[in-house]
Amino acid sequence: xxxxxxxxxxxxxxxxxxxxxxxxxxxxxxxxxxxxxxxxxxxxxxxxxxxxxxxxxxxxxxxxxxxxxxxxxxxxxxxxxxxxxxxxxxxxxxxxxxxxxxxxxxxxxxxxxxxxxxxxxxxxxxxxxxxxxxxxxxxxxxxxxxxxxxxxxxxxxxxxxxxxxxxxxxxxxxxxxxxxxxxxxxxxxxxxxxxxxxxxxxxxxxxxxxxxxxxxxxxxxxxxxxxxxxxxxxxxxxxxxxxxxxxxxxxxxxxxxxxxxxxxxxxxxxxxxxxxxxxxxxxxxxxxxxxxxxxxxxxxxxxxxxxxxxxxxxxxxxxxxxxxxxxxxxxxxxxxxxxxxxxxxxxxxxxxxxxxx
Length: 357
Prior knowledge:
Blueprint: E1 5-7, E2 11-13, H1 17-21, E3 33-39, E4 46-49, E5 57-64, E6 72-76, E7 84-90, E8 96-101, E9 104-105, E10 116-123, E11 130-138, E12 149-157, E13 167-171, E14 182-188, E15 200-206, E16 213-215, E17 224-231, E18 241-245, E19 253-259, E20 265-270, E21 273-274, E22 283-290, E23 297-305, E24 316-324, E25 334-338, E26 350-356
Antiparallel strand pairs: 1-2, 3-14, 4-13, 5-10, 5-14, 6-9, 6-13, 7-8, 7-12, 10-11, 11-12, 15-26, 16-25, 17-22, 17-26, 18-21, 18-25, 19-20, 19-24, 22-23, 23-24
């Protein structure tokens, strides 16, 4: 089969073979290109990436390392005026709104919930207000005994004269970002034809035969991972599809999840992360991971589950954040398993992994 998936070059596609055979950007095809990054060499309240090229869409990755209380906020083009408004939900709670602010808040957790990881998308049309979507995971207390926290934010910058040429992640708490904290800004534009794409394909593999456990081929260790999983059910009974990293089946995982907008559910000191819905229909999952060797691995996951086939039944959605409490190794391997022991992993199950340093 050919799996339709959101790929980091064009959006929705059916395969990467032609693209990569042509060198990743031939034939007028660009992709997410790195516009700039700032990695702190000391402590600071601000991490600013400036002199950005004008691109229609932006992706911002925030590696929020800190040794004391911090909370990330976004400022654009050095604007400290009250030109921002935002709406967020923290840990599945009710929406909170703020208007006429001097920044956009993209995490609302206790400042001690560090480190943190943000993935932010922005529409960057010069004559329109800049619109952003942010997903944040905060580690919370270290170790698998405590679930991470999550914040989902939408924001706008009421500026309609210029494109974004500077992004600042601003800390409004008493602490500082630590040495090694980093902001990476990526850009994408329909007219791009560059070949130096930020996201490198590390793995593309189909399971190949029905099974109850499959370990995908190892891939190169990268600081940032973008992973997409298509799970297809096979067999009988109720499947319990889960995934594990680097063969670790110990109680070293924790997650926080919401189904269909419901209250958050937590799992701590678990031996896995839930990979797909526990029913007999197909699931597509998209997630990002900050993969620093010396920190717990923090992940942001979204999935859609088919539910009953046909347009008369709405699909199922899940927002999930998770952590793997390993501070010695980077993720280089993923195992997909049915923890119920049934052979429910179909031969057509497929994974794609992209990465970057």
